[in-house]
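Project standup — Tuesday

K.O.: blocked on the structure for the chain from last sprint. Re-posting the sequence here as requested.
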Amino acid sequence: MPKLRSHKDNKEQTIQTEPLPDSITIKSEKDNKEQATQTEPLSESITEYDLIVQDGNVYSGELKNDEMDGRGMFQYKNGDVYYGKWKNGWRTHGKMRFISGDIYSGEIKNERMHGKGKYTWPNGDIVDGIWENGLKVRGKLTFSDERPTRIINKYKLYVIGYEGEMTFCEKYMNVMFNGMGTVTLSNGNTFYGLFIEGMIDKTGKGIYIITKTNEKFEVSIETALHNRWDSLSVVY
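H.V.: unblocked you, prediction finished:
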């Protein structure tokens, strides 16, 4: 992140320093209209603060050696807002609320999600785990009840949860299963196996577990579902 200038050092720009508000309003630049979309409450007050502005971005928070350092709030010109901790001008740990309504809360390194963190979508889906350079995450993905994910259409079974390795797609702000993981199906059973770019490896073997009986079978997911294994018995 480039070093931003303080209003103290910018003689051509006058900014009135005021106490931080209880909430901030996020604006959208869509269709060149200012449209209030949501507010982000400030959970803690900032006792020492300053304002820094560059190219439409605004920072309000603690400074050290004219750099963002301590606790502060940064509102990007596109409407995204970050509130949390800074070190030598870089974000380290806090909450990032995107204009889309997505929220990331956790550790950040080199301006990317890195370390322990939780990502929440407006529909209620949540990923909670360990992030790596904003691209990979290993943890638990919980789906909202309103939008289950169908794994194989003809079997009419849904994935209601996933735990394992994932890839975060920055372009679409979403995750896909990628690596070894466990899915929980709508019939209550689980399957541990390999996922490749969001698709389960139907031919490769994994561990299918019938939850109520704790029976375990080393088979492909296709074989398990084809044999109509449910939570009560195995039907051939």
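K.O.: great, moving the ticket to review. DSSP finds one helix and 18 strands in the chain. The chain has two domains: 1-101, 109-236.
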